[in-house]
Amino acid sequence: MRLYRPRKWKRLAAAAVILLLLAAFINGWYWLPTGRLTVHQVKAAAAALPIMEPLSGRVLFVSPHPDDETLAAGGLLQDVIERGGQVYVVFLTSGDGFEWDARATNREVNVDRADMLRLGLRRMNEARAATAALGIPKDHIFFLGFPDQGLTPIYLQNYLSPYTSPHTGVNRVPYAGTFAPGKPYTGKELDRQLAAVYDQVKPDTVLAPSAQDGHPDHRTAAYVSSRLATQRGEKLYFYLVHGGLEWPLPKGKHEELPLAPPRPTWQGLKWNRYPVTDHQRKRQIEAIKAYKTQLMVVPRFMWAFVRQNELLLPAPAEGAPIPPADLGK
């Protein structure tokens, strides 16, 4: 048997140590230095954020995909209801573009367009179960049925002409139980339907995706939903789901830890902490369990949102100056 040279063993040992420390950093393993550093940084960053006043009244959550509402605001939405308010959720897409979901669900490497359409229906049903677990009435839920991973080209390139989803092969809303089935995938139709939901709900507060979000569907939804909200004079807050590489840290379920943003401030605005109770976390966990397709693929990402608080970024007042320290960031 051929033995490895000592130098090669040293390189392998060094690589193993680096991988172990990296895993500790990502997962927050307290028993290793990098894990303790991650936890310390998260606690310090969260403690520096202002605590937000509770929301009340009629709150509309704009969700690009099924699960965003539960991850970003599962406790907050319960809190609104517990305080006598009303919560509504509008799902812009049906999550029918995540092929790894379809592969995991079908247990097959190759998936076709029919599989993706079935995935869209399944994720809509998961969203119904999740929002019910959070206590949101079923008649407060709206599905628009636009294509996952298609919001940006729809809005920027196909505002008037129908967009065909490469995942499902359709260019119109194919799902029963949606707000306007059969309508074309155009930016104009997305504007029209979302405006009609706003008109029907008449929200006091809109929770929209942040333009900082790393997912293009979220960034497009940020523009569309915030523009409509500001036109109507509705109070507006932003939330975050895809905050960059490995956010949120640490991965996995850490209910005893706070949630901290990847950057505390953005364009002169500071993220706020919204405290979550033990009871609200338990119901959030049940809602996350409803998203079985997502848990098959990204479980540690999903569980990382079960924390002591959630995060909201207040929209700036019109014409408010940006502090000089944040200019150019």
Structural class, from secondary structure content? alpha/beta
The whole-number mean of residue pLDDT values reads 89
As a percent range, the share of helical residues equals: 40-55%
**If you compute it from the alpha carbons, what radius of gyration comes out, rounded to the nearest whole angstrom?**
21 Å
- Assess the beta-strand content as a share of residues: 5-15%
CATH C-level class of the largest domain is: Alpha Beta
| CA distance, first residue to last residue | 58 Å
What's the number of domains? 2
Protein name: PIG-L family deacetylase
GO molecular function: hydrolase activity, acting on carbon-nitrogen (but not peptide) bonds, in linear amides
Pfam family, one: PIG-L
InterPro entries: GlcNAc_PI_deacetylase-related (IPR003737), LmbE-like_dom_sf (IPR024078)
Label this structure with key terms.
globular, 43% helix, 329 residues, 13% strand, disordered C terminus, alpha/beta, two-stranded antiparallel sheet, 11 helices
Describe the structure.
With 329 residues, this protein is of the alpha/beta class. The chain folds into 2 domains: 47 residues, no CATH class; 271 residues, LmbE-like (Rossmann fold). The chain contains 11 helices and 9 strands. The strands form 2 sheets. It has a 7-stranded mixed beta sheet, with helices on both faces. α1 packs parallel to α2 and α3 packs antiparallel against α9. The longest helix has 22 residues. The chain starts with 5 loop residues before the first helix and ends in a 15-residue tail after the last strand. The C terminus is likely disordered.
